Amino acid sequence: MSTGAESGDVAVVLGAGYAGLRVANEIRRKSRGTIPVVLVDRSPVHVLRTELFEVGAIAKADRTRRRFTLPIEKLVAREGIEFRQGTVEGIDFDGRTVDLGSERIRYRSLAICLGNVAAFYGVEGAEAHTFQVYRYSGAVRLAGALRELEAHSIGLPAGRRPRVLVVGGGSTGTEVAAEIATADWREIADPHARPPEVVLVCGALPFLAGLPESLVRHARRQLYDAGVVLHEGLNVRKIEPGRAYLEDGVELPFDLAVWAAGIQAPPVIRNLPGPHGRGGRLKVTEHLELVDRPGVFGVGDVVEFEDPKTHMVVPSTAQAALAEAPVAAANLVAQWSGRPMRPFQYRERGVVVALGVGRAAGRFSRVTIWGSPARLLKTLVEREYSTATKRGRAPPGL
Ligand SMILES: Cc1cc2nc3c(=O)[nH]c(=O)nc-3n(C[C@H](O)[C@H](O)[C@H](O)COP(=O)(O)OP(=O)(O)OC[C@H]3O[C@@H](n4cnc5c(N)ncnc54)[C@H](O)[C@@H]3O)c2cc1C
Question: Is the minimum distance from the CB of 134 to ligand 1 under 6 angstroms?
Fold first, then answer.
């Protein structure tokens, strides 16, 4: 099969996460297979990132990789998409090429969907002394470290339990803290394991900032029931092995710390010319095209899109990435055939935050749900995403 990659008459999609995988598939579908697509990712697998907070399940399962990842090559073969495994090291907008280190790919149109990386905001020791769940490898490392900590907890002085500190009071930090507090470490690590003491340091931003008030209320109650202690109001200033320091000098000792305090665009994106938003995210127009870069689209966590009507910045979620992807793909296809593009408008379908094994709180339209029904709904939505993706159907939102 000739893909057109050699001649550069091809649409190149960078990143095979929620955004990129969907953009690539939609370009093929909307162009009825006439536009050749090359999809690039550094990893051979599509990571079900919205589930990476489940560190208890990751620590337990032998077949973890199969539950939390899907092989990209297999997912895209049936659509006639060419997959290239490689790390994007640079993009030359003027020359219309992407640098993968060992090779350069020429493109006619480009979709940038490279997600994000952890932001440490210059906090001393944060990167060196904490674990993260933003990537699959990080979640596996955290799960292994927790299993070790719990397996040796019997050796701690009498009455002392393993101390886990989670930094970041947004949904990722909340989900991880609750999961660690409620996972069955006696089953996972050792029958005599002592359950961990979990402290969630929310920082200067309000706990679960931006989420509906009723959801936040349920989240507080369920975290309290799970034994998670909330520390609100102050940012972490410095982290040393075994100790975090808040802005007022208060010291919080820990055996293991998790950093979930925020995200930013990957370095390769932050270094690109052109307008950038918070954390170096790429600014895009209402057509999800980069400002002043015709034919180059940005989708998912890597972009900052402010709705011109509401001035609301679309959140960095898989739900938003999956909503943007078909519009960006349709606009890319429209450009190839000289048709007009259509604007993107975001409508949130709802939000659910997991609050420990078997529990969650969510808000849809004006309805708040919590406890096991909310968690069941979250699980069903996630299963539906992975089943649809495996079968090559357009996945529902998350
Ligand atoms: C623990 C956790 C729970 C979450 N829960 C939810 C939730 O319940 N609902 C929700 O909507 N959102 C949730 N999110 C957010 C959601 O995961 C992200 O918004 C979503 O992954 C964004 O999709 P994306 O395609 O932009 O980025 P990603 O899914 O991160 O995909 C980016 C892709 O780019 C690849 N890549 C990156 N850099 C390079 C490079 N230089 N070269 C080549 N490839 C590269 C990566 O390998 C990856 O495949 C959660 C996030 C986390 C961490």
Answer: yes
CA atoms within 13 A on the CB side of 261: 25
The per-residue DSSP string of 61-73 comes to: -TTHHHHHEEEHH
Which atom belonging to ligand 1 lies closest to the Cα atom of 89? 41
| Owner of token pair 């095209």 | 289
Domains of the chain (ranges plus CATH)?
Answer: 11-42+86-116+265-348 (3.50.50.60), 136-262 (3.50.50.60)
Burial 92-123 (b: 16+ CB within 10 A, else e): eeeebbbbbeeeebbbbbbbbbbbbbbbbeeb
Give me the residues paired with residue 230 across strands: 200
Give the global pTM: 0.96
Give nearest CA residue, ligand 1 atom 46.
15
Are the CB atoms for 265 and 289 separated by under 8 Å? no
- What backbone torsions phi and psi does residue 71 show, to the nearest 5 degrees? -70, 120
| 113 CB near ligand 1 (under 6 Å) | yes
pLDDT tens digits for range 69-87 = 999 999 999 899 999 999 9
